[in-house]
Request: fold
Amino acid sequence: MIVSLREIFEAELAAYNLSWCRACEIGKSHSRGFVLDADKTMVHLDSEIGTRSSLYRGLHEIAHCILEEKGLRRYECEAQADRWAESKMRERGISVPRKVSGRWKAYVSRMKRWGANIRKGRRTK
Reply:
């Protein structure tokens, strides 16, 4: 039986009793994905989940819902979600694209260095 990447994502959502919002009135970008701190029961992500990259992004957002982030700095939360997403993909025998992994590591590194001024960190490179 062949399982699609979307089915894997939906199975992870179901395992943690989470919902998937593909678009709503919230003014944030659904294309990148996000989770509201006040309501960690829904992943906001407008993606078909048809590539390893989109699966990784979806799993990353699930991680923000289920992992304890209280007391952690934002870059620590992002790094923790990245590790969880990578481990979930490896559990299923799916390799994480190097480009995706490298992009997230660079993002976490910039966030660690620049904090709220992360855009400034991007321009200096």
